[in-house]
Amino acid sequence: NKVTSIHGQGTLVKDKSDQKNWKVKIQNNAKEETIEAKYIIIATGSTPRQLPSIAVDNERVLDNEGALALIEVPKRLGIIGAGVIGLEMASVWRRLGSEVTILEAMPEFLAAVDEQIAKEAKKIFTRELGLEILTSVNITEIKTGKKTVIVKYLDAQAKAQRLKVDKLIVSVGRVPNSAKLGADSVGLEIDDGGRIQVDTHCRTNLLNVYAVGDVVRGPMLAHKASEEGIAVAEGIAANVAGQEKNLPSVNLDIIPWVIYTSPEIAWVGKTEQELKTAGIKYKAGQFPFMANGRARALGETSGFVKVIADAHTDRILGVHMIGPYVSEMISEAVVAIEFSASSEDIARIVHAHPSLSEVLHEAALAVDNRALHI
Predict the structure, then answer these.
(1) Which site in 137, 235, 271, 342 is 20 to 30 Å from 25, CA atoms measured?
(2) Which residue among 223, 312, 353, 373 is the active-site one?
(3) Is 353 known to be catalytic?
(4) How confident is the model at residue 16 (pLDDT cuts 50, 70, 90)?
């Protein structure tokens, strides 16, 4: 594909004598070189968020990258943070045999997820999977020994507690990797959160400089970053060819979210709590995997699918799922919302039998109280 890979730390440099091209200085240990280009795409991603009071050594206290490098299953595992990555790690290591305790500072579990889905997830993760999930936790001290880590904290009732684990994973999110880009010297606009400022087409405030992925606004998801990269590449190609195209931008409102736990969680669009806050009238229908033949044959019947539609127009506003392989099912909902489909549209589409997708079909029927197989 005529792509040259150069390893090192890149810094953006603008030569005032050259009004057409940008220069990137690349430092790789003692080696330094400079490359030149008319167009620049910044795709530096993100790094694990660090807590100032917790020293990560990736031996006993791990960030999410260190957690992926473990070579044996810890008997007792503690996880700080019940977000997407924390839950995925917890689900994996619990199924491999670890005793897992999750400590979450927020009072709500999965606050960004639809409330019903979050409640169902917590019930499944604690009762069926065996995770211990503690919310409203205030960590007061962490002591690292040769073989164990001691976590002292205040629980939801402000009572002092103590947790002893073999490994501790700190998973409190990620931050944009925008440092050391040379932003100040060239005038690249970065907000207080470290995100490079871009428009709907991922153009920065600098001519011919673009930024995509975790380092800009929007969800930190690989598929979102990939689509932004494709959109930018198409725009640059059109410019090089001298074509004026009205290229579409990536619609951040319909990016599918997936949490790869067991069972999986997936959603797209608005939650019920968001619609209530906005004062938008809606109707909702849901259907359980327990009543689906394919799920019963798989032996994975936990969870359900919920469809939320506008009370007046029936346009689908959000779809939320927890259950087997919902990461494969959510794309139908993305297409539906992108093309302004109604719940009636999904209800009238024939879904193969037996298949897990029938649960989405039944949930769409349930929006108007017409679910069949329950």
Answers:
(1) 235
(2) 353
(3) yes
(4) low
